[in-house]
Structures are given as C-alpha cells and as structure tokens.
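Technical note accompanying the year-one report. For the benefit of new consortium partners, we illustrate the data format agreed upon in the data management plan: each record pairs a sequence with a structure-token string. No post-processing was applied to the example shown here.
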Amino acid sequence: MFVRLRHLLGWVVSAFRSREELLLETLALRQQLLALHAMRPRHRLSSVDKLFWVVLRKVWSGWKRSLLLVTPETVVRWHRTGFRLYWSWISRARKVVGRKPISREVRDLIFRMVAENPTWGAPRIHGELLKLGFDISERTVSRWVKRASKSPDPARRWLVFLRNHRKAIAAMDFFTVPTLTFGVLYCFFVIGHDRRKILHCNVTRQPSALWIAQQLREAWGYEQPQRFLIFDRDAKFSADVVWTAQQNGTEPVRTAFRSPWQNGIAERWVGSVRRDLLDHVIVLNQRHLRRLLKEYVRYYHEDRTHLGLGKDAPDGRVAASAPPSESQIISLPRLGGLHHRYAVAA
C-alpha cells in the first residue's frame, strides 16, 4: 500500500514538472542503473560516474532527489577533490610570473650583512649585493632586511669597539716570582693592546714609585706612547707614577677594586708566561730571571701564535706556501727546548 501511494504521489508531482526536469531525472536514474550493472561483482564507481554527478550538480538544482547510490555529501567531496586536482595541475603547468625568488644563500647573506653592520640600511646592502654580482631589487632586499634580527650579539659589538681602540691602549702590571736564593722578585711589564707586544719588561727586588717611573720612561723612550695606560689600584702605582704617565703624554686609567678582568690583556700575559716558562724552571736569582724573561719575550714576539691575532705572532710570521710532499720539516728549539718553531727546510 505504501509503495503504491508513493508512486501515485510521484506521478502527480511529475505532472507539474517541466519537460527539462523530467529528462534530467530520467538521465540520472538511467545512469545509476548502468552503474549498478557495471558494479557486478561489487566495485567502486568509476571516474566517469563521479564526473557525471559533479557536472549534473552544477546544471540541475534537483539532483539530490534522484541520487540513490551515494549521499549528496559524497558528491560534494568529489567536486572539491576535482577542484584541488585541477588547480594543482594549473599551478604546475603555468609559467612562473613576477620576480624570480631569491635563493637561501642570498637570504643568509643579507641576514649576515645586517648582523655585521647594524647601521646599514637596505640601500647600502643592496649596493653591496650588486657589487657581488647578485641580480636583485632593492625592494626585495628591504623586505628581507625587515625580517632579519635587530639585536646583534652584544659581545660582537663590544669586540668591534675594542678593536677600534686597542691601538691607543697599553697596560702595565706586576707579578711575583719565587727564587732559590733571593726570595721573591717582582716582574714589571708594559704591554700594548694592539699586537700584544711587550713594550718593556724588568725585574726588581724592591719596587718603588721612582723605579716604576723610570721603567715608564724606558718603555717608550722618544716614541709617542699610547693614549691610555691601564693599571690596577696597587699602592706602588702612586701619584708620582700617575704624574710620570701624564708627562709622557698618556692618560692613566685605574681599574675598579678587585676587578682584574678590567686589565685582562695584562692578566692573560701573566698566565702565558707562567704556563710557558716559569712553571717549568727553577729561578736562581735576579740575573737569571731577567735573562729568562728576555728570551721568553723574544719567543713571544717572533714565534708564539696568538688566538687574538688570528693565530699570528706579534711581530708577524710569514706563512710558508704549501710545501711539496718531499720537503723536510725542521724544528727549531726555543727556551732551551721547552717550545719549538717549525719551518720548511731550504
């Protein structure tokens, strides 16, 4: 009874429909019958069946009434999948338009220039890139400059500041050395910050202000001294020493209380001379210590490489060209054999 009533209602409704709707509904039902015959044994709908319903959905508003094999949500999902596939194919087939994308190498170079030159803007960086042969617009450079980090490493900026002023800075200090017969001796030295060169070095048993003043005069002689002289708050560096430094044309600068790191260049040299020499010898007397320090200063200037100088010596060492495999490498003893210098045999 219910089936007959349904068919009757369907016939009544179809009587008021247009001829185009009836044709479309007939076409939809016949397509589903063909799909059912093709699915024996049971298989999935083909791509042609899915395309039929996607197109029918676009041209007929009543497509849902005749849909029996799948749900309307499934047809909508087919449509969206086809839409994504179509635009993926278009994106691959279409020619690239607009500006060429810049490589990661250029981006990293821009970030490096921003970090190393905090006062540079996009025009300056763009000019450097043009000189390096990179074909890139200033607007693109400006866009990547805005993405770069605006807070460079404070330690790096402080290091640049020190490099710009180290030629004008010298430092002086004392360190003690126990001896076998003379008790404790005092070693005084003056070191320049530029090339880490020892400007003067001497030994005494009883350091006084007058003796220190004389050492300062001998350190520079008739040469122009550095503008600043750093030293700690030792009582030996009295007002007479300060006055002598000022008369020599340099400005004395005292470090803060208990702050040896403020005179770090001098403190590091004390550590070097102890590790390289004094920890391996027994000092006999004042004359012996003076001779040892003289030899060490010569080794320090001419042979010893320094990390702070780019692994070069204070006096400069000419690097040999790449030696052939048959060349002989010879070792030259220094400080009685405690250290050696190596060279290619002539």
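Partners are asked to follow this layout when depositing records. The beta strands are 169-178, 184-192, 198-204, 228-231, 251-254, 329-334, 339-344.
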